[in-house]
Amino acid sequence: MAPAPLLFLPSRLFATTVTTAKLSSLFSAASSSAGPLSSRKTFSHIFQECASQRDLVAGMAAHARMVTSGFNPTVFVANCLMHMYVRCSLLDLARKVFDHLTPRDTVSWNVMIAGIFARGNTLGVY
């Protein structure tokens, strides 16, 4: 049995820069495919690429889509989301994701601590 096309779509898509239009086409293709949009791999790729490009518009659109799709993120996906917000200098949103994340792992703590220190807000650790 062949795997769902959605499992391979993000990898091919993110060989290039994410734009809001490409993100929109990903969601359209994913919604019309046989596989569910709620793939851990899909959202982790999206958030990682948005973080590397510092593309806040696409990242927030993906976050909104994740919430409205009913996908319950794994710790890995939540860490990718937090990292995207940290890279886009939105520590408040990263902190909200962190506060709602249970359980947290070492990566979760490292993303938040590194983000706080990178922005010079060392008092935010306490």
Could you characterize the architecture of this molecule?
This protein has helices at 9-13, 20-32, 40-53, 56-69, 75-87, 91-100, 106-118. It is globular, with a radius of gyration of 15 Å. The chain is mainly alpha-helical. It has one domain (5-125). The longest helix has 14 residues, at 40-53. The chain is 65% helix and 0% strand. InterPro entries: PPR_At4g14850-like_plant (IPR046960), TPR-like_helical_dom_sf (IPR011990). GO terms for molecular function: RNA binding. One of its GO terms (biological process) is RNA modification. This is Pentatricopeptide repeat-containing protein.
Order of helices and strands: HHHHHHH
Radius of gyration: 15 Å
Q: Compute the average pLDDT.
A: 77
What portion of residues belong to β-strands?
A: under 5%
Secondary-structure-derived class: mainly alpha
Shape: globular
Q: Which spans have pLDDT < 50 for at least 5 consecutive residues?
A: 1-16
Number of helices: 7
Residue share in helices?
55-70%
Number of domain modules: 1
Q: What's the quaternary structure here?
A: single chain
Largest sheet: none
Query: What is the number of E strands?
Result: 0
Terminus-to-terminus distance: 52 Å
